[in-house]
Design a protein that fits this description.
alpha/beta, Rossmann fold, Dna Ligase, domain 1, about 35% helix
Length: about 230
């Protein structure tokens, strides 16, 4: 049976769900680093239900060697926080995944917007901000209302709408004071609440599979209204 390495961390799928989906298709090996926030004790918990490669405290070279020793047939992650790390492991082990330079764009919201704009996909205004002093210039380019979010983040954590320059400045100062390294100000995209009818949000989630340069859309999922 093929062996699939799953780089584990906070994400959209839990271990039980992953193992259930992989049943009769592949053997899962969870790659776990307990030094990561939220992963303390994860290796022991995962070891109760599956094989685990504990890479806690290992250097990049040691991690690569440990994974190569398992001779996996594939690698993936269900955590946005581990995209870059998974790309590095995949490249080192000769496995198919996003190349590191692509993964670097996927976890950087400002670079995402730039690449999409260059490709003619969309042109949502977006400015990277490193200090509160840069907020007025960013707002002049983006406009109000705007969205403030971490430049690198997941799950809409620390993401909020701002409707005034004062509110934007206050949110920026709070974010930076809390240890945030860098964030972006983005144009707010106004939706149509009547588009989907009562009880549904005015946006959808599109799930796609990319392989060999081809993209196949799997499903389109309606969403609940935003709070």
């Amino acid at each position: 049976m093929p062996v699939l390495a799953v780089v584990f961390d906070r994400g959209s799928a839990g271990s039980v769900e992953i193992l259930a989906s992989a049943r009769k298709l592949c053997s899962v090996v969870f790659v776990c680093d307990e030094d990561l926030p939220g992963s303390a004790g994860a290796a022991a918990r995962l070891a109760e239900v599956a094989r685990v490669l504990d890479v806690t405290g290992l250097s990049p070279g040691q991690r690569h060697a440990a994974l190569r020793a398992l001779d996996p047939d594939g690698i993936t992650t269900f955590s946005e926080y581990r995209l870059a790390a998974t790309a590095e492991l995949a490249q080192a082990c000769g496995l198919t995944f996003h190349p590191p330079h692509v993964a670097a764009v996927l976890v950087d919201k400002e670079r995402q917007r730039t690449r999409l704009r260059e490709a003619g996909v969309q042109s949502t205004r977006c400015v990277a901000v490193r200090t509160a002093a840069q907020v007025p210039a960013a707002l002049a380019e983006v406009g109000l209302p705007a969205v403030v979010k971490p430049r690198s983040g997941a799950g809409s954590v620390d993401t909020c709408r701002v409707d005034s320059a004062g509110q934007a400045m206050a949110v920026a100062e709070e974010f930076l004071a809390g240890g945030g390294a860098e964030f972006v100000l983005e144009e707010y995209l106004e939706g149509d609440p009547d588009a989907a009818g009562p009880g549904f949000g005015d946006y959808v989630s599109v799930e796609s599979v990319s392989s060999g340069g081809a993209v196949r859309h799997v499903c389109v999922t309606g969403k609940l209204p935003l709070a």
